[in-house]
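fwd from M.: "can u put these together and see what the complex looks like"

so here's what she sent:
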Amino acid sequence: MVDLLYPKTPLYYLTEVFMTTKKIPDIIIGRLPLYLRALERMASNGEIVTSSKELGEGVGISAAQIRKDISQFGEFGKQGTGYNIKFLSEKLREILNIDRVWDVAIIGAGDIGHGVARYQGFLERGFRVTLAFDNDAKKIGTKVGEVEVQNIEKMADALNASDVKIAMIAVPAEYAQDVADKLAKTQVKAILNYAPIRLTVPEGVHVQYIDPATHLQWMTYYL
Amino acid sequence: MVDLLYPKTPLYYLTEVFMTTKKIPDIIIGRLPLYLRALERMASNGEIVTSSKELGEGVGISAAQIRKDISQFGEFGKQGTGYNIKFLSEKLREILNIDRVWDVAIIGAGDIGHGVARYQGFLERGFRVTLAFDNDAKKIGTKVGEVEVQNIEKMADALNASDVKIAMIAVPAEYAQDVADKLAKTQVKAILNYAPIRLTVPEGVHVQYIDPATHLQWMTYYL
């Protein structure tokens, strides 16, 4: 296993090759934020060291799976002594590229847009809303969180003048695909979509979805 | 590998309560709200009839899988003529128990609580916030959406005097398990948790998770 996360070693230079020849399954990447979230909780409780067993209980995944997932990226724990929480958190942040703060644009300044723009949890976890857009003249010029809402017609120019690569779509479903099409022509490469509709985007643009009503409707089946 | 629900989410791993034995696999139930969401979109576009192929394109699931899923519940379409959108929507609403409006309690009147309480999308899809609670004296007596925030100490009594079986937790992570423990002693049987922490609940209580930061952190890996 190439120890790709120690930049001081010559192996650092192989990282690019490593990443392209041995693609780590998407599903493993998707579990890392959960591990990180649990580790951050442990750290805030004053814990120093954890085990794959304890971490597993915190995320509902087996200890064996966690060891296997983490070992894809290097040897971050020692047999018998477990993981240093601070060290493993830092490594996961590096792997996930959140050892920095990402600027984020929000499109749609309605209830969801406002809630999202004000949400402190984003800033604590690597994201900061710096641009906001809407097509409603009544909303343009108002603020969501700390950010002034701009006319959506200025979106492409404003995005291209920024370093924003992440956007959140919080417009009604009927406008969401049009917004996604416009975003795909900018440097935005990651979209978190709150509109209850599936989006079609070009290859290289990532989309994920938030739709609390689908979760509620799933649960009501069992009530 | 688990056939993750579209929209793909690592939070699926946290929904362990659903993994207990059920006649129809819980993963199929989880896809029904997505089918319904796509059907409702078609209906609002004035469409009358759809096919499993078209529906599949709307949700990113194969036509064969959709036919198989829907056939678990009966024969709702005809070979060659497809599905009547209104009829299939009604059937899915019946199956999911959302041919009615569910009252919902929100615990936590911060940014998320406000966003959720005002979100029109819930009402359109079967859910109405009727109770809200917080432990902050400054918030008690104020309103989230249309609902007055009550002291969280009155939560158990207020819930038991209501017909609320669904609660949304929107408190900071360090308080979420305590709130879940209190909810588990009421008639609440479904929890949508916005706090970034895994909850432990008694058997028979369903929990699902919303955590946009985990989605964003997943995508930043690829940026």
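replying to her w this: The CA atoms of residues 28 and 68 of chain A lie 9 Å apart.
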